[in-house]
Hints:
Elements: H1 16-37, E1 44-46, E2 68-70, E3 74-81, E4 95-100, H2 101-106, E5 113-118, E6 124-128, E7 136-142, E8 147-155, H3 162-171
Amino acid sequence: MSQHDFNKxxxxxxxxxxxxxxxxxxxxxxxRIAMRLIPLGLWVRVEPFKERKGLASQDPxxxxxxxxxVEGGHMLEVKGRALKFEGAGDYPYPTVFLGRESxxxxxxxxxxxxxxVSEITDATLVIPYDTRPQWEKNETFDRRRQFxxxxxxxxxxxxxxxERLVEHLTKRKHKNL
Length: 177
């Protein structure tokens, strides 16, 4: 393995095969969440792929991409994790990594919640966006892409149940949880 300065982000998206694999993995997770919502009678839309160069936060046409749109104007950010958990009680870390800080800061349209999905158990953690003041800046080592990301993490106290999210989405009155 080559030497790398882990304080400098890797331009991993230049690895076309790896980048495509990450996009496909993310799309699979988005569809899993959409498929949980459809039987509840909700209209859902999964964001179409857009070709981009580099990071989403650096491409104006991708900065506000929402993973899943639910009727009533609700937007969900969906993130798959190769972690085994059933809920906040057995989540293996004290904070939940929510993504690159630069991407969150670049957004103009914000989701009502971030849904974290265990790729092992299919369990979910739901973090309402209105808990953002409690989110913490952190550095997380990305095991898949082998670099440190400067991101945001939510303390486990921010997590609400999937049932609470569904209740919110089916009321269709407010965009925040």
